[in-house]
Design goal:
Layout lengths: L2 E5 L8 H8 L5 E4 L12 H7 L5 E5 H6 L8 E4 L1 H10 L2 E5 L1
Parallel strand pairs: 1-2, 1-5, 2-3, 3-4
């Protein structure tokens, strides 16, 4: 079952990103929003770990990227809120990492 994982916590504040990475499967998607978008910065260990994933689509919420003045690693696709809704409909299941 294809799952969209939504992560909003900073990769520097807890281990939710690491836990999420262990559960991601082929065909899944990962959407970073809020402070989780810091993990999508090029050249960081988090971005490198995400780039190594096979068969996982990577997304970041455009509004949060811009609000933090971040650059996005090339393997991420920026989506707006309408894109977020479209992703939620595209995947069989949505798992929010609270």
């Amino acid at each position: 079952m294809k799952t969209l994982h939504v992560l909003s916590s900073s990769p520097f504040s807890d281990d939710r990103l690491s836990s999420c990475l262990r559960l991601l499967g082929h065909g899944d998607g990962l959407l970073l929003c809020g402070d989780a978008t810091y993990a999508a910065q090029p050249g960081t260990s988090h971005a490198e770990a995400l780039a190594a994933l096979q068969g996982v689509a990577l997304y970041a919420l455009d509004e949060d990227i811009q609000a933090r003045g971040l650059k996005l690693a090339a393997n991420f696709q920026q989506v707006d809120y309408l894109g977020f809704v479209a992703l939620a409909c595209q995947f069989n299941k949505v798992n929010t990492w609270l």
